[in-house]
Amino acid sequence: MKCRRCRAPAVVEIRRHNAPFCTDCFVEHVREQVKRAIAAHDMFGPEDRVLVAVSGGKDSLALWDLLLGLGYRASGLHLGLGIGGYSSRSSTLVRAFAGEREVDLIEVDLAGEYGFDIPIAGRRSSRSACSVCGLSKRYVFNRVALERGFDVVATGHNLDDEAATLLGNTLRWRTEYIARQFPVLAAEEGLVKKVKPLFRLSELETAAFAFLRGIGYIVEECPLVAGNTQLRYKEAMNRLEANSPGTKAHFFLGYLERGAPLFEAQDRAQLSPCERCAQPTTGRFCAFCRARAQIMGQASPVEVRPAEVREAVSP
Amino acid sequence: MRVKLRNPDRELELAGRREVRDVLLELGIDPDTVLVIRDRELLTRDERVGNEDRIEIRPVISGGSGP
User: Fold this and answer.
1) Which residues form the domain of B36?
2) Chain B hits for A156, Cβ within 8 Å
């Protein structure tokens, strides 16, 4: 098999593009897709401070590598989840990545900062472990970005992630979630701008990129994830894709182009500060503080005085 | 050939020379969901592998709450 661009021996084949690539042309292809995503959606510019949420997996480390390679001011944020050896091995890989490149890494330990880890949350919360994990990440990423003056939070969600999420939201017609499933969420009062620069790339592409760039990433799957709904939706999409390459891209990229405008009117939630932590929410207390109270065995989130709230959100 | 599979980690032995696509077909693995690695190099589906080779079949799918 020969590279579509230069006819050198190919190392990876992207069937939806009907394109084999050699290493150099593939790395260039990935960079082009990311540059195109950043430009088309006005994600950030060279002066912006970008906070990359890094788990230790292929997507987030590939994203950090890509943004650094493209010359952006990208720092990493890693959240320690407390999932035994899996979390410690993930953290080690993130630290190694940052150390080798001498780039800025911020670490937050969920148990140290908030009093619980994800295995405890899975046992005590009415939410699933994956749900509390996602909630905690969104909360901490936003809070740290605001406190430390970052312009934007970038996450490594890829095309497979987005297509599977859109499938799940569509099957349940969660219109308010569908309306917010966009590669860019603009900043609002108390919410930092969020972007997904890998949304044009499949998991195969991000994994191949990480491998070919020599990035050490965690290959093992999170031990708490087995059988979760996101994985089932991905498997369903992969079965469609196997018979009809390009299905995932048509589904998600087609949604962005033609579906998303139809859902915009659904996105009208009024936000006000959480009475516990001052992060934006639609109710009295934000979802994170409510979940945390339940996990910690409190009847409800403890109210704090306004001065403490101001202190909590000031840089 | 020696084949290393991941999640969970395990190894198996396959006899005979064939293309990567046939190895994956035999194991019931969708080629778009894995990297196939030999000696720190990625293999495309038309590469031939034989008894002397050690290959790793590494899944690319990750689940959970996202990155």
Assistant:
1) 2-59
2) 66-67
Q: Average pLDDT, whole number, for chain A? A: 93
User: What ipTM was assigned to the predicted interfaces of this complex?
Assistant: 0.95
- Number of neighbours of residue A239 by Cβ within 10 angstroms: 12
- Residue whose C-alpha is closest to residue A260's, from A186, A172, A166: A166
- Which of A20, A54, A211 has its CB closest to that of B35? A211
Instruction: Please give the tally of structural domains in chain B.
Output: 1
Domain annotation covers residue B64: no
Task: Report yes or no on B67 lying in a domain.
Answer: no
A133 backbone φψ class: left, alpha, beta (φ>0; ψ -120 to 50): alpha
Give contacts of B61 with chain A, Cβ < 8 Å. Answer: 160, 203, 231, 234-235, 238
Before A280, cis peptide (omega within 30)?
Answer: no
The DSSP 8-state label assigned to residue A157 in this structure reads -
Residue A183's pLDDT band (boundaries 50, 70, 90)? very high
Q: CA quadruple A176, A181, A186, A188: dihedral positive or negative?
A: positive
Domain boundaries, chain A: 34-268, 271-315
Determine what percent of chain A is predicted with pLDDT higher than 90. 86
- Separation of alpha carbons A163 and B40, rounded Å: 30
A54 vs B37: CB contact, 8 Å cut-off? Answer: no
Q: Domain A34-268 class? A: alpha beta
- Give the pTM: 0.93
* CATH code where residue B44 lies: 3.10.20.30
